[in-house]
Amino acid sequence: DIQMTQSPSSLSASVGDRVTITCRSSQSISSYLNWYQHKPGEAPKLLIYAASSLQSGVPSRFSGSGSGTDFTLTISSLQPEDFATYYCQQSYSNPQFGQGTRLEIK
Amino acid sequence: EVQVVESGGGLVQPGGSLRLSCAASGFTFRSYWMHWVRQAPGKGPVWVSRINSDGSSITYADSVKGRFTISRDNARNTLYLQMNSLRAEDTAVYYCVRESKHWFVPYFDFWGQGTLVTVSS
User: Fold this and answer.
1) Rounded to a whole number, what is the distance in Å from the CA of B25 to chain A's nearest CA?
2) Is B107 touching A (CB cutoff 8 A)?
């Protein structure tokens, strides 16, 4: 199985900050990497697919990059509605999610 | 509007069974691969099973293989998950998820709100 490791596991930041979350896979997955946002009581929401493609309707402050084993999700200027938990997910083989990054208000 | 709505969760004793349903609307259900993903309290999501568009190809996570059965009824736009021999570690919110593809890269573009399954005596 391909293991996905996210860092950090939690992060405190302020509105307006630039935030970067990283995700590393245990083997190369090319660009088979997706990012999701999850808020309590809501359905998870797709943000980025295929490592760097922005899902329709997602604000442009979200961006993704990387290929192979190392990937990043960047939020260019944090907004109040962005405080949530973020997960990476590989779709190269049977889907596997990272353990999550909880983004909290500083 | 694309919608997937899960139902059928609840409290069940260890060793018991439960059948989850997922009603899909707002898209051509028979054209999409569908998945079940679960999330235990305080944990990240874990993929459970997938079924292709016509039901001819099915895959399971090792943790549920032999106990869970995924199926679909394209005439009723409904996805199912039959869960047998339930264990405490199966306790989770179960999500019905639609798969789309960008070139060859699959991703989960629509998730339901989830249905809670609690396995406890």
Assistant:
1) 16
2) yes
Mean pLDDT of B78-103: 97
Q: How confident is the model at residue A106 (pLDDT cuts 50, 70, 90)?
A: confident
CB atoms under 10 Å from CB of B61, counted, come to 19
Tell me the C-alpha to C-alpha distance, in Å, between residue B19 and each of A82, A98, B6, B88, B95. Answer: 35, 28, 11, 16, 13
Structural contact between residues A21 and A72, judged by C-beta atoms closer than 8 angstroms: yes
Q: Which residue of B has its CA nearest to A85?
A: B44
Cα–Cα distances in Å, from A48 out to A51, A90, B22? 6, 12, 25
DSSP state, residue A55 = P
**Given B44, B61, B103, which is nearest A99 (Cβ)?**
B44
Alpha-carbon distance A4 to A26, whole Å?
6
| Separation between Cα atoms, residue A35 and residue A67, nearest integer Å | 13
Nearest CB among A36, A50, A98 relative to B105 is that of A50
pLDDT grade for A16, boundaries at 50, 70 and 90: very high
Chain B CB contacts of A96 below 8 Å: 47
> What value does the mean pLDDT of chain B take?
97
